[in-house]
């Protein structure tokens, strides 16, 4: 067999696979063990049947051939209007490329921002695919820590220092944040904007959790003064409308950059199925009430986490202000996040993600996805707390 490319072999950068506990939990479930899984951000409800009916109707009506690569005009217009209303910008379809999910949008955005050998910054903790996405375009990921003591709000001065030290050309941010649940404040956003302007960075803003805000407000980064010309915004239907498997998202930004990314899509994905785009348009037109209904269970379970954690002395938590996760501090057990997650799965049949799966800044934590029905979620949380109490007593 010919030698595989260096780029494909180096996607993980020599690091452990972040999904090991998840894979182990899935194998245990497949073998019949009753694992309570709080790992990935998958809704416990499925896509609204009305959206599926719209998808079916579009397919039956014949929208099953090649769709235009940038996305159908009506959907691009609808996404542009949605982003304009949120950011105060005047965006049109020329500012939007429809992609096969948010991950494809992240991949495309980094192609627009980085050349081979460049450096791309990302905030640590980060979603597990971020470093590999940067490596996939031939660039080098460099982490900028967001501290638990700051509520995982990144500091603009840290970003600027990292950019100057490395000659970085891009910065990847995510608010509301996966894995921490942090929602970046106006002060944080302004600090990031100053750093981006001073270091002449592209900012790739992953905003897929924009409908899941429990405290504060979602602030689109492109709407900060002077940032529209240097921002590529990533969005998705996955979290807002429980359409994870439909694989439909977008990247929005300056028209010149989007025109280049249309060429990239022509040479890679060649667009998104038309009937899925029709369903996405139908879903967006259902309005904010439907999006709020999809988000509400996670708000409820977030409050349950804070209530349970507040009643004991071993575990800590930075209150998540958004997204469908809670980051729990397990250091008083004397265990790392990885050790805790592996032992919790083996002994109590509860699967969570180690904080170390998301970088070094969340070491000694585990991420809990708020993704089981309420009664099962409460049972899983009680098992986790009981396990922690036993380990702390033995430490």
Q: What this model shows, in words?
A:
The chain has helices at 6-9, 20-30, 49-60, 73-87, 102-113, 130-136, 156-166, 186-199, 255-266, 274-284, 288-310, 337-348, 374-394, and strands spanning 36-37, 96-99, 119-124, 140-145, 170-174, 202-206, 231-236, 249-252, 316-317, 325-329, 350-351, 353-354, 365-369. The protein is an alpha/beta fold and 395 residues long. The chain has two domains: 6-46 and 289-394, Aspartate Aminotransferase, domain 1 (Alpha-Beta Complex), CATH 3.90.1150.10; 64-286, Type I PLP-dependent aspartate aminotransferase-like (Major domain) (Aspartate Aminotransferase, domain 2). A seven-stranded mixed sheet has the order 2-8-7-6-5-3-4, with helices on both faces. Helix 8 (186-199) links the parallel strand 5 (170-174) and strand 6. The termini are far apart.
